[in-house]
Design goal:
5 strands; alpha+beta; 3 helices; 2 domains; 129 residues; five-stranded antiparallel β-sheet
Amino acid sequence: MKKTAVILDKGECLSTIHTDQRFKWKDETVRKLAGKSEWLKHDFYPANGMSGVIVQEFFNTLWGFNVYVLFIDNKFYVPMSEKGIKFVDDNSNHDSSINKKRDVSDSTKQLHEKEGIFRRIINIINKKD
């Protein structure tokens, strides 16, 4: 079963760890693509709420914690410290970009509806005076 994680703290992204030759990566192609220099070519930078499948995991001997490489949007490899992610159930279908857009859209609709109701109430009150 594939492990999935959500970024909780983008500050824990290890955006240049791919340039350090002291770490043993399981896949050299992933190492080359897992960093800021590659992401900027596509105007991408990891953000809180993004999720991805964990495609690699290794222990960072310099700082003493595990590094998890997330594959985000089926395009970007993002190395994260364990402090910056939360593991999620694979069945949750967490697609952060779609869910965020849907949540914002729903919130905006609700706000407009409440504003309309509020304006009608004010009009009713003003007519009574």
